[in-house]
Amino acid sequence: MRYALISDVHGNYPALCAVLEDANSANINKYIFIGDYYMCFPYSNQVIEKIRNYPNSYAVRGNEEDRIEMLSKKDKSTWTDGQFQALYWYYNEITSENRKYLKELPRSAVIDEHLHAAHWSSEFIGNVEMEKFSTSRLQQRFGDRTPTKEDIITVILEILDSDATFNKRLSELDDGVYIFGHSHIQWHKQYGNKFFINPGSCGFPIDFSGGAPYTILEIENGVVSVDERRIMYDEDKCVNDLLNSSLYMHEKVWNDIIIKEFKAHSEVLMHFLMFVEDYANKINDKIRPYTKQTWAEAYSAWQQL
Questions:
Q1: 141 and 203 inside one domain
Q2: Domain check: are 274 and 286 in the same one?
Q3: Could you please report the per-residue DSSP string of 122-136?
Q4: Residue 142 phi, psi dihedral angles, 5° rounding
Q5: Averaged over 85-101, what is the pLDDT?
Q6: Please, what is the angle between helix 252-264 and helix 269-282, to 10°?
Q7: Residue 7's closest CA among 189, 212, 177?
């Protein structure tokens, strides 16, 4: 049995199509989608409908799908802040049928025997991934040097081998394959008969490399093999489509940051959010989410750095 593992599309329909085209030529039997299907590019409905109707597929929800459920319970008249205007645009843009689909997705799934999928690695191994080898942590570790894939894997394995929480959770897990996303970093590791796979972010990788990563998992007669792939496609077209979209006209600050991060293939947004928090505190603005004025002024100040 061959599975295509696809995570964190983030509205990048061209990337998703490139990955599916490659997977279709690789004799895939089943497709597993691992959350975060919109937010970043203005093709949300195309992505959601493609996944919703894709044959022989399974899907779980991610944090972006949680946001849809959260917003569905909010009063739209309160959506006046600056910080989340892009999110509000996405909510209104996504069709009611697609919103319903996202809200009904499970948080985790067991697919066939001993094959577990969830968006967050914390469902299986605790918080070690996001706390110790997220992209921002890797940036701190490597400084101005852009790490290679080998550098990243070496760091990940060093951390996992020495992390007490991970090793405790590892000892408690049943044998099987554990699939997750969220960090936007492609990696995998085998410990005995336990396999951990993050296929990376198909639509928005921030593991210092471009393209559209996904992973092929093959299980044949109890033998597990993992094939990490990264498909090239027209990334510039995605950026241009975003710049020419009503999404960009609605909220430029968020999308400018997204474009910077997408082109850098590394963390930018978190650093900006930390700057905005510091900026707001300095001007004694305690309103959260940030007002439109503070959001825009902080971005102007950040650009001067």
A1: yes
A2: yes
A3: HHHHTTHHHHHSSHH
A4: -95, -10
A5: 99
A6: 140
A7: 212
Specify the pLDDT at position 113: 84
Q: Are residues 34 and 144 in the same domain?
A: yes
d(CA 257, CA 105): 29
For residue 175, the enclosing domain spans: 2-231
67 and 114 share a domain? yes
Residues facing 197 on adjacent strands: 179, 188
Q: What number of helices (H) and strands (E) belong to the chain?
A: 15, 10
3-state secondary structure of 218: strand
Asked which of 206, 231, 256 is the last residue of a domain, the reply is 231
pTM, to two decimals: 0.98
Q: Which residues of 251-271 are buried (b: 16+ CB within 10 A; e: fewer)?
A: bebbbbbbbebbeebbbbeee
CB 62 within 8 Å of CB 8? yes
Tokens found for residue 199? 């296929």
Mean pLDDT of all residues in 15-23 = 99
Say how far apart CA 200 and CA 198 lie, in whole Å. Answer: 5
* Cα–Cα distance for residue pair 255/87, rounded to 1 Å: 11
